[in-house]
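FAQ: What does the model actually see?

It sees only this:
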Amino acid sequence: MSKVRRAFGLIRWSSLAIVPLLGACSGADGSTPPPDVGGTSGLGGGAAIGGTTSAGSVSTGGVATTGGNKSSGGAATATGGVIGAGGSLNTGGVVATGGTKANGGTAATGGVAATGGAVATGGSKAGGGTPATGGTTTSATGGTKATGGTSAATGGVKATGGAPATGGAKATGGAPATGGAPATGGTTATSSCSVPPAAPALVGWGTGTTGGGSLTPVVVTTLSALNSQASGSTARVILVQGPVTITGNVTVGSNKTIVGTCGAIIHGHVEINSVSNVILRNITVQGNNCTDSPSDCSSGADAISVLHQTSQVWIDHCDIYDGSDGNLDITNGADLVTVSWSKFHYTGRTDPANSYGHMFSNLVGGSDSNSSEDSGHLNVTWHHNWWATNVRERMPRVRFGKNHIFNNLYTASGDQSGVAAGVNCNMRVENNVFVGLANPIDLSNDNSASICQSIGNVFTNCTGSTSGVGTAFTPTYAYSLDATGGLQAAVQAGVGPQ
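And it is asked to produce this:
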């Protein structure tokens, strides 16, 4: 048995990027006019015009004008209040000022007293409305604070209406409506996840797979509805609308796209058997974790099985874990499959038959003796996938087929073997990142016809074999290689349902 073992150089191509969305909100508040304007209210001294009746008093009233300048402090205004009956109007003005400070109708009620001050209309000239005009000015000035104290001129009762302005603070209370905005946010969340993200470009052996095409999706939330829509060969796009967990076995017919939204989970076994043209993406598939075969996990079901001459399959952006026998097995002459941007892992278990547990992820070709069915088939592309926690073997293990394994991430420490060559395989393993594996490239099960070429891979804190054997096939499809620098972060951020 002879082998040619060679490794080729590093190939660097393009990488991926992710774009976030942002939003913002704003508010405003008012201001208080300068006390000089209040001084203008000193034109209340204009009441001195009415006060023509007693020029001296008016002059003293002029002192009240000075008090008016201090009306911001209010105390001088109180002095103005001493001036006399006409001053009482100023006292009423104090009430207006008080009304301003009260921002609330108590003072405005005092303002009603200002209406009582209309008794000062007893100075009929004062009633001549000039003071009223002055009052209008005062109210307008104070009204600036009251936001429309012109009505306060009608007599502060409106200032009581101004109290609702304090109630207007309830508009701040209305801010909870902004708090309600999260509900709107909830709506947004629902609407955003209910529409699945656009699919990436399809690369590899699965190129040409269309599933249900661009048909209007059919929404399902139950096992019976999913199986009903997935059966037969009629083209359909099936939306598994989360958040929901559908428990049981799902059988998928030809020409189907099954896509999950909002965290949808299929808990059980998905079988893609003797059909063609199937897409499964953006969904979590949780296997039975040996509950269907407690004494021997290998006799249980895979999380996903692709088998018996099934062709044209694309599995993309899925989280696949805890399969009893395997997470995703491709066997019995299945062909033309691409597996991209998906995560494989186990939550842990104990298989009595094995001290390390039968946590084997991906088998391509089920038997060394099945060449009649498998030769010329089992062609699979694996790219931008992540083999993670507790995976022991088969990442993948390949028999017979041409498998292209590029830009993947391996962090499954405690493994028995990573990428594994089986009989008659032809594997091109390039630009992958292996971190902490005990046996990244396993050649212990190959034969003289097996090829497993290692090209441009990075091994960090790994032990065991990192060398390949032979010269692999050259893909007939177009593809771009990402550089290995930054690949780990990109894969960890991008795999699984989005």
